[in-house]
## 1
Amino acid sequence: MKLMSGNDAVARGAWEAGVAFAAGYPGTPSTEVLERLATYDEVDAHWSTNEKVAFEEAMGAALGGVRSMVTMKHVGLNVAADPFMVFPYAGTNAGFVVLVADDPGMYSSQNEQDSRYFAKVAKVPLLEPADAAEAKSLTAAAFELSERFRTPVMLRTTTRLAHTSSPVEPGMRTEAERTPFSRKVSQYAIPVYARFRRVELEEKLGRLRQFAEEFPGNVIDAGSPTVGVVTHGIPYQYVKEVRPDASVFKLGMLYPLPERRLREFCARFDTVFVVEESEGFIEQELASFGITNVAGKARFTNVGELSADLVAHGLNGTPVTPDFSKEIAVLPRPPVLCAGCPHRGVFNTLRKLGVLVTGDIGCYTLGCLPPYEAIHTTFCMGASISNATGFHRAGEHQVVAVIGDSTFLHSGLAGLMSAVYNQVPTTVVLVDNGTTGMTGHQEHPGTGHTLKGRPAPAVNYEAVIRAIGVEHIAVVDPWDLAATERAIRAGLDHAGPAVIIARRHCRLLPVEKVEARVPYRVALEDCVLCEECMASGCPALVWREDGPHIHAWECAGCSLCAQLCPTEAIVAAEVA
Amino acid sequence: MPVTNVLIAGVGGQGAVLASELLALAAMAAGRDVKQGEFHGVAQRGGAVFSHVRFGDRVHSPMAPRGQVDYLVALEQLEALRYAHFVRPGGTVIVNDHRVEPIRVGDQRPYPDDAPGFLRGKGFDVVVLNATQRALELGDHRAANVVLLGALSASLDIPAEAWDRTLMERIPERHLALNRRAFAAGRDAAAVRATL
């Protein structure tokens, strides 16, 4: 037995099932699946520029005859929704599995989205494991199912499943037979033949409904003749925790549901509890079957993550234990930009300029918080640039879009091209820290390395941006406040679209860590206690009774606080 | 065998996740079912990190229900306060005598000055260990997590061989000797307290 997280187990299951190609875009909590897959020599795994691209690459590989997988978080599926909705019309050749990780509780996401509905809209089967061992076995089952019905299969996990480890029995890899592609236009050229395929898709769904009745991953735990529960995934574990006596119908296949078996099960009880995280997906399906003796979302919230406590409250009426941490000053530990973070100089400047700032998805989303309070809006990947263009159209002209390098390549370029084409003077600050920072330093097309660690061509941002027609491009070091301010001002003053590339590596990358720098210190005798330095928001800088102090072990030597100091009281520490 | 519930809490970078992984591996080596789940927010640095480890004949929920944690191990005092409401009445809190000041965003309340006293007042069995200091004396302050794990191990029904094997398999060779000493130091400290 091995201790594996849900993510590790999905990767292991895919490897054992003979997956040959996998693609994805990083997104918590899905990221580690592809990182783990990349450690297997037999698997060709790579990061793609975005989830739509990743989906289409893996889809192409599956059409080409090898078992393939694509990984993403829930919002990634929104990006990949276009191929996700149309591929089922054709059906796959070799096995094709779409791993989608939802984030109930939004530990690291901008929204709480129940991706189970996507499977229903696309009419693809959906499997969901309840622990790491099942994550492995259901991943293998997903490939079998995909090939048996020639359909993409969606495998859904959640943060709790992805990040919980439990014992898994590892197995050996079985190489999958390659199934060569053969030209069949009536199947694969969808727009021309969609009307025929539409009918076939419905017939296939009918066969999947039959299959759901016999799918071994739908399990009934026999128990009390009076307490019946229908549940799935991680909520199943909460139910077993707090009502070990209950009769439990655990669904491993969430779409389509086994209507006949559910009808039989529910008929045995006066009221059946439907315990599911996020929306009332199962409850609504049951209602569509005419099964209405259920207690579901009325008892189990659709907001946030469930827990054993919340399930006990809903099932048994047990009060939730009070949290006495409110009785004493349990100070929060808010997320902050690291000491030496290159984004800090950009937000200091933007705040000073007092412009409207449209933000994007990454560590730099924190630019909306004190002490910067620079960002006004943040929604989704790539929205900063296109939102800024919209603000211009509404008459707001002092607008700056802030976007990271990975996000720019993911979905920022299209927005910039639109601004150029439509001659809107959108100003963009591309904060290029040379990595996908927030998800834990994944490589991307601009970093010069692949997921497997091999050297790769790195995107030349200046050349790309110039080629699409941006005439004003400046590169600046965000550790230099005066230069950053000059560059952003010049960009705003320019009559057309302007891009300022604020370039410096993420402080946590090895390339930066090895570069020794002299830390700074405060000469308190020169300090006038004006607190200007605190506007840097640097975690290495702390205010004590006698004034500001710098933690030498944390200081990155960026000198930002020294640049903010009006009396030159912050100086480079002498080298011992 | 009933399920034993442990919660390990600290600040990002202190090794709460590694400590919980070691505990989960040792419980598995002792033949138990186990679940270990970590929780962290968006912070790359300096955020609160905690991890539930549950082991026994059969473990279901990834995290222990509130009020059912048998042992809370805190690598830092504030984090002991943050998660103490998970501990069962009369349960044990093993806390490192160490403070990591949080980054302030507006909140200027002082760091609580008597966390152990507050927790004792709630009826918990509170063990205060100078784990960071001990680890530093052994060669590296970062081994505080393993000192605390050693102290916890004195209360758990996991045989010494299972701990030995886990440390050997999980800790890289170059850090093994230090971590073994740290584990033993924690275990000894707990043993001394037990005889008082």
## 2
Amino acid sequence: MKKFLSVCFLSGVICLATYPFVWMFLSCFKTNREIYRPGQLLPGSFDGSSFRLLLDASYLPFMKIFSNSLLASIGQATLATLVSAGAGFCLAKYRFRGNSLIFGLAVLIILMPKQTFAVPLFEWMSWLGLRGSLWSLLLPGAVSGMGVVFFYQIFRHFPEEWIELSRMEGLSPLRTFWVIFPLVLPGVLAFFLLYFVLCFQEHLLPMLLLDDENATLPLALAKLKDSSHRIPESVGMAASTLSIVPLLLVFAMAFRKLRSALRLVSLS
Amino acid sequence: MVSRRLSISSNSLIVLLGPFVGFWLFFWMMPLIFGVDLSMRSDLLVEKSLKVRSVHAEVSDGAYVGFDNYRKAYRDEKFWRSLKNSIQYVLGTVLLTLPLALALAIRLIGLPRKAQGLLLFLLMIPGLAMPSVLSTLFYLFFHGREGFLNQYLILPLGLEPVNWMMDPSFIMPCMIFQSVWRWTGLVTLFFLCGLEGIPRWQLEVAKMEGLGGWSKLRILWMPGIGHLILFAAIFLTVDGFASFSGAYVLLGGSGGILDSGLLFVTYLYQVAFPGGSGRFDFPTATAMSLMVMPFLATLLYGILRIRRHRLGK
């Protein structure tokens, strides 16, 4: 009985998590009438006109928006990974003045995310003359308090002897970092992917900071939903599908590495 | 664990730590200082700088008005309303997500590896989708007279179908539902990774002692991932306060009927960029965020510090 209940619970939650997305995928082929009847799963007929409308840029330059999004997110994730890995390595393995202060700083950044002071950031970027370009998104994205704490945890569990050995060999800390960087690659990959997703989903900052020609995916999706009475719903569904499929593929491929890295990080 | 850390030369320190500190100063601290300054000025300068787009804002023009903007924010009823909504939203999300994720993680850990990985991945799908996709799906799939919620939850209970987004008392539950839907998978992944770190011998001892479900939870699971639960709670709190996209897309930029879905950041956005004839009131929006965020950050920081002392680290 208990077992039965537990299976019910698990499958119920899994259904709730996945079924709407199956429905979304199949809705790419539906007419508006069919979409407004959510009980119906299968479309009347499969024709890919919604994808064609989307990719032909009949409503939005989708490919351009998609590549903007990718560029901005990959850029932010790369910068943040490099910057945070260096800082986390220093904090975890070396003794210097201000060590705990900087760690406190990283925690503070987690607690005060940049979205909450988006308005001053907007003003600051206009003052710098960066507003409108992708740089205004990339550069603030390089600071990640979460990243520093993440890499602090990763490097903390790295054997101390290796660092001492490299010191005896006469390597500078910088070289040491460079040498052991490949050894923590699962951690790097995990952080990169998680941060990539967060950047990919960011809505408020691109909306404020970017010009229309640099728009990113969340903005396009919001637009497609808002004007749903002129644009068929299936086009919005197609855009949503295309926005999630790449992420699913990448995560499926890297899932095992991701988990092993998270296991390391989640040790206290 | 006391680590025998080595000393480091200042050159290496600059190269390794410098970028972080530099980016922090330039893109986190400077906007904040800029914001403090901005929040003390009148809103005239903003209109000027927006008129000449692409030309740098002429900062010298806005007259200092002291704490007027703070006073204005303090008297603004909608501001307090949005704060109250955000607190509700955060509490709802945290109190629902954490137990659900913990229960899921404990269910999953007993499963064979392959099945576990697959189910975990399926659970994570909503977390990978964009909040705006979740909103759209919510609107089309769950919401509505024939939507999933009415068909499978309300009608079987013998109640009248609910008009979710048009009824002020149901907007907030909808938003909380959406947030829980989004985060449960990722938090479960996190918890599961933590549970796997619990030594095997402890599990065996628990089995030999014949611990029941409840005492197992109290003695075995909770101490193992207590710190992760705290961390997830803090992450969800901060994210809840900073969240914008889901509510924005769901409610089309408004606060919903009677502002019952107006979140803090959405309101900041409304004050700073009012649609139509409103005035761009950047200074007041900045004052509002400066009234809330440092306070919240200090509170959470305090909680973290206290916990760390108790754990003896």
